[in-house]
Amino acid sequence: MADTIRIAYLYEDLMNTYGDSGDVKILRYWLNREGHPVEVDNISLDAPFDASQYDFVFFGGGQDYEQTVVAKDLPRLKETLTDYIEAGKPMLAICGGYQLLGSYYMTSGGTKIPGLDILPLHTVFKADARMIGDTEFETEFGTVRAFENHSGRTYFDDPDKLQPLGKMVQGYGNNPDDGVEGMRYKNTFGSYSHGPLLRNENIARAIAKLILEQRATVTA
Ligand code: GLN
Could you tell me if the CB of 100 is within 6 A of ligand 1? Predict the structure, then answer.
């Protein structure tokens, strides 16, 4: 049997909105089809975490309250996650998790939730619209359809470093101004897409392939 693939799900018990945990289940399905058993660890508050022990890291969406709780625990993850991301290992962060990869999220209540500050992006609230509804966007993997529901608007602070994940056809994506959805930096992806995102077979299979390629590089 092929090697076991190890997935770290950051704060699985707190960060999981609108079916985000389905992303991990779908990856498990595609990796199992390639003959790999998959182990998933919930890295919750205070749980020890060494990112280099994992083949994939997932960070789901969360409501503002859960994000506040998680933000207090995040600083201890910064160094190991930075090394992991810079090494080009694969990670997917959805909505609230995506926001927390950046420097901060300013909520509707005026609370500034500090993020990991690993990637140059920040998120702010503006009263005129909650971004909710079906989305469609074009990516390097093909068309993706999903669902968004967020009040935070994400902006890139260094657009030369981050690449948008997709170009909007329907919906808002990162914010109402830029016409783009999500972000890619090396093999780390951020997205506002629930539904879950990986019900889109094209992007699910692309990420499963990246996981296997990165693993081969590391163990070769
Ligand atoms: N609480 C954040 C917002 O409203 C993220 C929401 C989510 O993860 N679904 O923008």
Answer: no
